[in-house]
Amino acid sequence: MKKMLNWGAVGLITTALLDPLVYWMLEKPVPWFRDILMLAGGIGCFYFLIKYGKEL
Question: What is the pLDDT of residue 56?
Answer without folding.
Answer: 75
